[in-house]
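ok so I'm stuck.
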Amino acid sequence: MKLQGAFLASRIGRRIFLMFGLAVAVPALLVFWLTYRNAAALSERTDAAALRAENKHFALSVYDRLEMARLVLGNAAGPAPGRAAATLPLFSSVSAVAPASIEPLAGSDELGFARLLLVPGPAGRPAVALATRAAAGDTMLVGVLDPRYLWGDADAAVSDGRVCVDAGPVRLACLGEAPNAPAAAQVHDDWELFLRPRYGVESWTFRATRGQQADFGDYAGLIVPVALGLFLLALLLSSTEIRRILVPLESLVARIKAVGGGRADPATASDDEFTTLASAFGEMEGRIDSQLRTLRTLQGIDQLILTREPLSRVVETVLQRIAELLPGRPLALSLNAFDGYQARRHYLLAADATGAAAFQPGPDPLDDGGRSLQSPARDWQTTAALGPSFHGLGLASASYLTLGPADGPLVRLAVGNLAATEAGTPPAEAGPMLELVERVAVALTAEAHERKLVHQARHDLLTNLPNRLAVLEALPGLIRQADASSQRFAVLFIDLDRFKAINDGLGHGLGDSVLVEVSRRIRAAVGAGPLVARLGGDEFLVVIPNAGTASAVFAIDRAIRQHLQAPVTLPADALIMDFSGGVALYPDDGADAESLMHHADLAMYRAKRSGGGHTLAFEAEMNQSAIRRVQMEADLRVALREDQLAVEYQPRIDSRSGAIVGAEVLVRWQHPALGRVMPDDFISLAEECGLIADVGRFVIQQACAQLAQWKRDGLPLPLLAINVSSHQLRGGELFDTLATAIGAHGLQWSQMEVEITESVLVKDSAYASEQLQRLRDAGATVAIDDFGTGYSSLAYLTSLPTDTIKIDRAFSRLLDDRDNHAVVISIIALARALGKKVVAEGVERMEDVEMLAAWGCHVIQGYVFHRPMPADALAALLAQSQPQPQPQPHEAR
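replied:
not stuck anymore, here's the structure
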């Protein structure tokens, strides 16, 4: 990094440099002083230890010499001759003296014990002598030790020092030179040599002295230059770091000034960088405060958008903030949603007569034909073509920009210029203004998106008609209007006839095309007044205001039917559409939206059940009937759960032999409150509410279990017929349900017959044929129930997988009619020709049995022989095995 700038020219630089110098010098001096002190103490301890070691070594060497001299003197006192001569190297003299003249030896009289004596020596200094007993006689040998032997070499005693030997108060010798160093620089050591155990005298004290070995003057001479060099190095590094800090700081101040607009505050001018920095921060704070106000405004705008406030409030908030950035300038925001629902909007903020800023909608402030609201333009442009709202303010021109996506809503901001010199917009304010205007564009987009979502939520996507939600929202308003004006209105519920077959046969794509065309024709038929809605599927609703009577509603109904008479042309076909309708009037048929729509739906349902193709007005009885059906459905669910259903059997009799050749299984419901409910009343209900599969499973399980029980009891029944509805066939579970029951009870498929109505076979011929063929392949037989009441098509009869034809009771009970004779005879002949069996059901008279037998039909099912009966009653009949059963008295069924 290249360093620039004279940092000592700055007061803050000098202060920092001084603080760095003190921060380096004070700790360094303290460290050096502590180091010196510790080194001196360590040196003193080292010198003392060395002196003590030398002093001790010298004392012990003197002791060793005493021991050697004692041994030599002891040998000289023995009986061997010539031993005295051997003492000459160690002793300066040896003499024999009387024991009385010497104090007795301490401790013992044994040979070898000696005593040290002090005798006068040369130069008045005492000499050391050894005394020991002679080997013969009562004499004592006394040898005066040679000082050179006893004390040895003076230089070897203590190096560079002096040692003195004291025997109590008497100084025996001093060896070496006394140190010439000051007393504070000398090292002393005293060593006690214990002599009493061996020589019977007090300890000798060896006192050693010498000067300190370490010379700290040289150390100080070395450390001071080193410390000074380190101090200067620290100052150099400090100056480098200070320069690294202050130069970027000066650059930072300059940059903050640039962010703050480059304006200097004279009140805070100073050569102190931090004061200058504070001034620059103050300038920047003003800019940031302005930006924060803009951000708070943006936050407020976001809150307005989230809470779905009117867009005018967002525009007003933005214009007020821009007015703070450009005080005194007239402002205008123009909006173009491009959604087809909302026209262009213009809002103006300018001073009114009182001088206060007034916000109001108005005409386009620019007179450019709306060209500036056709595409975005982020660059500021100036125009003198002003509209009435700006022109009336006496403006010279206007500057504007247009923001927004290229394919979405646009927002244009126009700023009025009071004079030609004001043309354009200051760059410093351009950024915040762009953000504010863009936020308006976001709000406009959100408004358009919400408007689209609201439209989608309230309109059918296929036909673009209002949907159920829109109707439920519109009807309360119509009810209030009707109440206020004492008028009536009507609701016409429309359900297309046969549309499910069209949708299934032609496909959903063509079905949707039919719905779109039908909706177009309904709107064309009713005109502009009524509300046309699609509720879902093939259901439409027409709300007809001011419909005083039902005749007015039926007039519109006829108009719709006339518009639907023309075929709906498809790519490969043309369809004539018709519908079932229901009418409900307010307030006669309902006091609220839900009840009106519900009652119109009930009337439509009644019309559809009665054949379709017409419209019925609602009657109170329809509602009661619907309520009864709802209650009946709930009761039927309870009946299935609580086993209220039961199974009865009606035998089939061969009229020739009277034998029971089979039986039909019939389900019965014993209601706890209503008593016995007829099958015609609850079977169709079970089909409508999806319970027929449960009812069918119950019947199959009960019948198979009973058939197996009769087989175990030795009462075999050749054939058991079970009725199957179209819903059971479409469900696809019939075969599996039968197979499970047959397998569980050990039955044969040949014992089962499935009865299906003729109309079901024709309507669902392909799928029905597939299901029934599986049953036949397994071994069961298939019977066409109620033959002759439906299509009675020879083509269907020959192609469908059936084994038996059952002549409906509508023919069997009216055989007196000659026309019925012909029909029944034809059916029997047709069945014989196709190889199919024939069963006549609902026969109540013996005369009819005889006629049927004459025509070739011998299997009879009806009251003429037996009514439906419980399982135990049929078991009794099977047990009797009557060959010639007699007809029973019959009642009209």
